[in-house]
Design goal:
Distance between the termini: 28 Å
Number of strands: 12
Radius of gyration: 14 Å
Number of helices: 2
Structural class: alpha+beta
Largest sheet: 8 strands, mixed
Order of helices and strands: EEEEEEEHHEEEEE
């Protein structure tokens, strides 16, 4: 259930695409950006739409996204063509980048290589903050 895809408001599976990116000492792979239903297991723990709604409900409502069903719309305002992408470091257990839209917010996306699917980038969380960290490595396509 947690890996059920949430479609983009346009009906597409992907919210965008990242091309191969290079940061000092690492090559970040290309792939589609997808949002899944996910799960929330506690403060700052979880991923996907469930986690975004549980952690950021108030800021979503303030931005005009009033319910869980509008999480995809909220993510789509951040993760869209032209959004700059930043890579900080290897502090996370997995490969993650930040997509930061200066007037809207930030989405953290993680590279995933599922056993029976194509590799892709999964939206971990999205929030209203717009402070960047790290080096700009690309843009959402």
């Amino acid at each position: 259930m947690s890996m059920t895809p949430i479609l983009h408001p346009s009906g597409a599976l992907a919210f965008g695409r990242l091309l191969e990116m290079r940061a000092p000492g690492i090559i970040l792979p290309a792939g589609e950006i997808r949002l899944f239903r996910g799960r929330h297991t506690g403060p700052n723990r979880g991923f996907g739409a469930e986690h975004i709604w549980a952690e950021h409900e108030r800021e979503m409502i303030a931005a005009g996204f009033p319910d869980f069903g509008s999480v995809a719309g909220y993510v789509a305002t951040i993760v869209r063509e032209g959004t700059p992408v930043f890579f900080g470091d290897h502090n996370w257990r997995s490969l993650r980048v930040m997509a930061v839209r200066s007037r809207t917010g930030t989405a953290i996306v993680e590279h995933r290589t599922p056993r029976y699917e194509d590799a892709h980038w999964s939206v971990i969380t999205a929030f209203s903050g717009t402070k960047t960290h790290g080096t700009r490595v690309g843009t959402v396509r």
